[in-house]
Amino acid sequence: MDLKSIDRNWGTYLKFIIISLIFSACSNDNELEVEEVIIESPEISQFSFLTTTNPNLITNLELDINGNKITGRIPDLIDISQLVATFEYEGSSVLVNTLEQISSISKNNFSDILSYSVKTSDNQIKNYEVDVTRFTGLPIIYLSTDNNAPIDSKEDYVEGDVFIDGGRNFDDLENSSMKIRGRGNSTWYVHPKKPYQLKLSDESEFLGMPTEKKWLFLAEYSDKTMMRNTIAFEMGYLSNLDWTPESNFAEVFINESYNGTYNITQKVEEGANRVNLEGNGYLLEIDQLDRLDPDDVFFYTGNFLINIKEPDLEYDSNEFNYVKNLLNEFEANLYSSQFKDATEGYAKYIDIDSFIDWYLISEITKNQDSKSFSSIFLNIIPGEKIKMGPLWDFDLSFGNVNYSECEFSTGFWVKDHKWYSRLFEDESFVEKVKIRFAYFMDNKEFILDKMDFYAEQLKWSQQENDIIWNTLGVYVWPNPVVYNTYDEEVSHLKNWYSQRMDWLQGAYNNL
Predict the structure, then answer these.
(1) Is 165 within 8 Å of 140 (Cβ atoms)?
(2) Which of 10, 18, 107, 254 has its CA 20 to 30 A from that of 225?
């Protein structure tokens, strides 16, 4: 008996010919009997959306087939709930759920991943996941201002409406009343893509984040990876800090015009779902005089201007004097001869765990704004110790600055903050920092994986964002390096972070 096998179509449709030679006497002649058995192998070999069957498409779309995954992207904002697929396959039928599919005729909703099943006549089945990305795959926020009014002020709100198409991962937000204004400092005045603060008329969940009224739209214009703030927040989630803002990326349209990709975040403010001050606490910020609003209430310590962000206080009130005196007592003690004493020194005033975690995240990222007088938050609940945090404003971190040594992955930065430089004179504090840094070092690969995760999430949005803002390959203040592609920007971020962690490990070991 001889067996010959012929593999057709690159091994996906197999046809085995079994030749049996049977010698028998029949009318004095030998007969050759050949039996052919065909075994099918289920497969989809081509999958596309054509303009001829989908008139809302601008161009034909050929999807990629890799194993059992079929993927593709429709770059236009069109309805994909009634698309007609054209496909070629080997087998007896193609099903979605239990419905048989006819190429170029059957309609399906591709808003979610669909499972296509190919069956053969001998009941073999192969399942495919069909994943169609609409626009960039991110949720879409539509902002409409009354009479198409421009959003051109940090002080004055413009009223309007907001609607969110949550896509696959978030609930929609039905059309809701809102008002919106500009926010930020250099990000507002220097860059053309503006950041915003939105205030809903009623508290609401927003992109899966806990219920509140105020939401911030970070433009991430100078950070071409768009993820530095988010990665700092990821470190915050690993930390002992009481609260770190949540954030999600979204595409934003203003008065029907695409305005790019934004990082939508919770605001640093008092609230049960934000900085929980338990009704009688204080949210403070180390700040600068020229950044204050006219109605801000502040005081000085020997080293810093302290802005009382919440609650609203009157000068010389009991509450004002309480927090002012507490901060000044802490600072005086810190510079006293007994500052190392475990019961009567600085440890009497501060929550050391929060001070160390806030410091380490700020030092690891070498955040430009964490050394002296910008976006440095602390909070106090009467009867408890002073806590550092929450984290905020990390777009000029991970080497994304060209006017200070923060460009480089080597060298201490936040360690020279006037409070921390004194704390590092205490050997017990240094030892605690070393131990805690080892924890963040153990999570180095986790953070690198997060960078890859967000880069994948933003792979289409960064393209659309760059079409209108044209930042890739162009110097944007204060970038120290300029790369032509998004992938290169992400690689630079990852390499800088890895080098920073390695340098810090050696530097802390030598303290």
Answers:
(1) yes
(2) 254
Q: Are the C-beta atoms of residues 484 and 343 closer than 8 Å to each other?
A: no
Q: Which residues contact 31 (CB under 8 A, 6 or more apart)?
A: 22, 24
For the chain, give every domain's residue range. 2-38, 43-134, 282-509
| Alpha-carbon gap, residue 337 to 323, rounded angstroms | 23
- Of 119, 124, 74, 64, residue with least CA distance to 96: 119
- Biggest CA-to-CA distance, the chain: 125
Residue 251: Cβ within 10 Å count: 24
| CB-based contact 89:42 (threshold 8 Å) | yes
Q: Are 440 and 450 in contact (CB under 8 A)?
A: no
Percentage of the chain lying above the pLDDT 70 cut? 92
How many CA atoms lie within 13 Å of 219's alpha carbon, on the beta-carbon side?
23
What integer pLDDT is reported at residue 317 of this predicted model? Answer: 97
Q: Per residue in 359-390, pLDDT tens? A: 999 999 999 999 987 899 999 999 999 999 99
3-state secondary structure of 17: strand
Q: How confident is the model at residue 18 (pLDDT cuts 50, 70, 90)?
A: very low
- What is the residue type of 484? N
Instruction: Report the alpha-carbon distance of residue 210 to residue 267 in Å, rounded.
Output: 12
Calpha distance 389→177 (Å, rounded): 32
Alpha-carbon distance of 254 to 87, in angstroms, equals: 38
Strand partners, 265: 216, 247
pLDDT tens-place string over residues 43-67: 999 999 999 999 999 999 999 999 9
Q: Which residue has the tokens 């934000």?
A: 274
Q: Which helix (H) or strand (E) holds 469?
A: helix 461-469
Architecture category of domain 43-134 in CATH:
Sandwich (2.60)
**How far, in Å, CA of 207 to CA of 339, rounded?**
46
pLDDT for 106-125, tens place per residue?
999 999 999 999 999 999 99
Which residue has 């338990």 as its token pair? Answer: 278
Q: What is the CA radius of gyration of the chain?
A: 31
Nearest-10 Cα torsion for 354, 356, 361, 364: 180
326, 319 contact by CB (below 8 A) = no
Alpha helices, H only, 107-214: 186-189
- As given in the structure block, the two tokens for residue 92 are 């007896």
